[in-house]
């Protein structure tokens, strides 16, 4: 999974984008990875370009193609099919692209597209009548968690359990997952989506998993493991979180599912 190479810079240029149609000002910092004079922005739209009647028809058509499993999952949490499920209006996306920007991603639930744009392009987008707001694409980092190994004393206090959890004993015991495993409960048949910085899918702890799909949203491909040119350890956090969910490696780690 290729990532943009991080570099330390002393000064970051700040672009103030005047939204002429809404009298709002969006401020964004140009990242060192961006082409000179450009920034990554979210472009939020006012609607899905549908009349009330066509909106109801589109929602019904979308619901008709959902699997029974998807409908059951939604019903369990009280999530009905609604306008947020409908795709971003194609004519809006085309109009934004016509300003010369690069469309990076689309989000039906945000009703937005992300773009790489310079100041002139951002002002042209802001002037479009169906654009509600421009906002910088957020960035952030978080340190990796510290793993606290389970001691032999702790294991002896609890006696023999269903699995040899290794260093994952304490984290599972804290939320009573071990008791569920002992009673025969696991995540069989459950589909789980993981979003992270990458995954070492060849790791021994994952060889039992049925991985039904992968997507790299940065490079728009289906490779989520490290590739040549990636920073060392880029996939370490995702590999750790996936092991907490579904890893299985006797004496080393067992995930909750």
| Uncertain stretches of 5 or more adjacent residues | 1-34
Estimated share of beta-strand residues? 15-25%
* Tally of alpha and pi helices: 8
Sheet with most strands: strand arrangement:
4-5-3-6
Reading the helices and strands in chain order gives EEEHHHEEHEHHHHEE
Q: Looking at the structure, what is the overall shape?
A: globular
Query: How many distinct beta strands?
Result: 8
Instruction: Kindly report the average pLDDT value.
Output: 80
Structural class: alpha+beta
Overall number of domains: 2
**N- and C-termini, Cα separation:** 26 Å
Helix content: 25-40%
Indicate the radius of gyration in whole angstroms: 23 Å
Describe the protein in words.
By secondary structure, this protein is α+β, with helices and mostly antiparallel strands. The protein folds into two domains: 14-136, no CATH class; 152-254, no CATH class. It has eight helices and eight strands; from the N terminus they run E-E-E-H-H-H-E-E-H-E-H-H-H-H-E-E. It has a four-stranded antiparallel sheet.
